[in-house]
Amino acid sequence: MEGVEESNRAIKVKMLFFGPLAEKMGTREIDVSLMVGTSVEELAMQFDFLEMLSSGLRVAIDGHLETDLSRFLHDAAEVAFLPPVSGG
């Protein structure tokens, strides 16, 4: 029964938004409750960010850029969504 209990547990992550994404969301950060075993990709899908990820939006978890969107999030993770940088 322990495996069943583990899959029903919730975690909380902090989502951080920058640039135009912060404007779109109307805030720079939110706390979100998720089920244990939620991946970065699943979180992005919940907020309709998948298309943006394919257009250059980057994700950092706890301050480190993450390229593996199938990575599971952990409790108290800080997930930053970073827009593409342009220069001139």
Question: Could you explain how this protein is built, in words?
Answer:
There is one protein chain. The chain is 27% helix and 31% strand. With 88 residues, the chain is an alpha+beta fold. The protein has a single domain (2-82), classed as Beta-grasp domain (Ubiquitin-like (UB roll), Roll). Strands 2-1-5-3-4 form a five-stranded mixed sheet. The mean pLDDT is 90.
What is this structure's SSE topology?
Elements: H1 2-7, E1 10-17, H2 20-25, E2 29-35, H3 40-46, H4 50-54, E3 58-61, E4 64-66, E5 78-82
Parallel strand pairs: 1-5
Antiparallel strand pairs: 1-2, 3-4, 3-5
How much of the polypeptide forms β-strand, as a percent range? 25-35%
Number of domains: 1
Mean pLDDT: 90
CATH fold-type name: Ubiquitin-like (UB roll)
Structural class: alpha+beta
CATH architecture: Roll
Largest sheet, strands/sense/barrel: 5 strands, mixed
Order of helices and strands: HEHEHHEEE
CATH class: Alpha Beta
Helix content: 25-40%
Summed up, what is this model?
By secondary structure, this protein is α+β, with helices and mostly antiparallel strands. The chain contains 4 helices and 5 strands, in the order αβαβααβββ. Strands 2-1-5-3-4 form a 5-stranded mixed β-sheet.
